[in-house]
Amino acid sequence: MRYVSTRDPSHSATLSDAVARGIAPGGGLYVPESFPELSADDFDPEASLAETAERTLAPFFAADALAPHLTAIVREALSFPTPLRMLKERTAVLELFHGPTAAFKDYGARFLAACLARIPSADPRPLTILVATSGDTGGAVAAAVHGRPGMEVVVLYPRGLVSPRQEKQLTCWGGNVRALAVRGDFDACQRLAKEAFADAELARSRRLTSANSINVARLLAQMGYFAWSALRYRTETGSDAGFIVPTGNVGNATAGLWARRCGLPVREVVMATNANRALGDFVAGGDWRPGTPTVATLATAMDVGRPSNLERVVHLAGGEDAARKAVRTFAVTDDEIRDEIGRGEAEWGETWDPHTATAAAVRRKIGGEDWILVATAHPAKFEGVVEPLVGHPVPVPPDLAALLERPSHAAEIDATLAALKRELAAGG
Ligand SMILES: *Cc1c(COP(=O)(O)O)cnc(C)c1O
Questions:
Q1: CATH number, domain with residue 354
Q2: pLDDT tens-digit readout, 183-214
Q3: Is the pLDDT of residue 36 over 80?
Q4: Which atom of ligand 1 is nearest to 249's Cα?
Q5: What is the position in ligand 1's atom list of the atom closest to the CA of 271?
Q6: Domain annotation covers residue 260
Q7: For residues 215 and 87, what is the distance between their CA atoms, to the nearest angstrom?
Q8: Is the C-beta atom of 248 inside 6 A of ligand 1?
Q9: Residue at 46 is within a domain
């Protein structure tokens, strides 16, 4: 399988090269050149997540240097529980928050680190993974790479715009992980990372790669749980489920659309957004490229004004108008998020975090049957929002509790390439 750039069909790369580079030359995003035809009959209905992911991803690894390592990669990366629980009214919840940093970003980050650790390189310099984060990605990548030889992580996060526990997960590591608090919003962090990747001087001085959802490895990892849960749902109910995905940068939803394209029993992928309008405006006929200013909401990890993976959705659909017809999006206000969290325990028996609450709100708006709500974060990560609404403390998962005990280190920088370069140089 080769990977082509969304912006330049004449450029293609192997999986290893696409993963190592992160972004394609010219700023495009890597997408699979074609999608395999998979059928539910190809899968063992009792298979584990790792086994289903391996079967799903084998064609995407075919002929690459990483292909012989796929079994080891899925076993290492997808090794924590992923419950799919049936609730009432033919609705299920897919809990993606049982990894080390309690959000779904652990899947992609661990898978990416497991791939990077196995990609042969002739360059002896350590690999610098630069990651812009709206909160959860940075912590997941830091956790996945901390202590791995030959790699370091530099995390860019918007100062004051992530929850205190998220910030702890970014800043508690030390060693081969550095956290930079940027004076700007997430889009400023993302822009800064893009500028760094485009900078010739930086490219000469270090081996730089990206861990954002622009990296195709993260999307491949996420296809694994869409495949596994879609197959499980069909086995248990005889019906095909649609997924409601809390969406910001559209990485998770794109993985769902890719699984669907391969023929897995994904009926539909519905994108739940917060008050940030870019996605809804695009589907209503607007242009996403200029972006809209980011609005701060309770679902902070979805506060994205220019969702980069829309470019992949457009590519998959074969054009903007086709993409607009292919996806449904629903916007959820902060008041609706509060309302869902407040009634979640009585109504569903669930303590929603603010992101998953957007999916629950969309479930209410959309009606119908056979929906899987994608639960993207543990409510204990956002206790400041959740606890007053549910009226009791939310128990903290043990991995998260252990991180909260560690001391924090972060440097503050302006949102300029010059400031980032100074900081990188100072760190060696
Ligand atoms: C990142 C994140 C999202 C949004 O996912 P995208 O792939 O950026 O659309 C939703 N919820 C949580 C908790 C997240 O961390």
A1: 3.40.50.1100
A2: 999 889 989 998 998 899 998 888 888 887 68
A3: yes
A4: 8
A5: 9
A6: yes
A7: 33
A8: yes
A9: no
Ligand 1 neighbour 108 (Cβ under 6 A): no
Residue 137 inside a domain? The answer is no
Which atom of ligand 1 lies nearest, measured to the CA of 250? 9
Full strand arrangement of the beta sheet holding 207-210: 207-210, 127-132, 151-158, 177-183, 411-414
Mean pLDDT, the chain, integer:
94
* % of the chain at pLDDT higher than 70: 100
Query: What pLDDT does residue 428 have?
Result: 52
The C-alpha atoms of residue 101 and residue 114 are separated, in whole angstroms, by 17
**For range 13-36, the mean pLDDT:** 93
Looking at the structure of the chain, the number of domains it has is: 1
Nearest CA to ligand 1 atom 1: 301
Mutate-to-test residue for ligand 1 from 101, 104, 213, highest number of ligand atoms within 8 A of CB: 104
Domain range holding 374?
81-102+217-396
Q: What is the pLDDT of residues 336-373, one digit of tens each?
A: 999 999 999 999 999 999 999 999 999 999 999 999 99
Yes or no: say if 307 and 249 are a contact pair by the CB < 8 Å rule. Answer: yes
Res 190: pLDDT: 87
Residue 5 in domain: no
Output the pLDDT for position 165: 87
Single-letter code of the amino acid located at 423: E
Residue 204, number of CB atoms within 10 A of its CB: 7
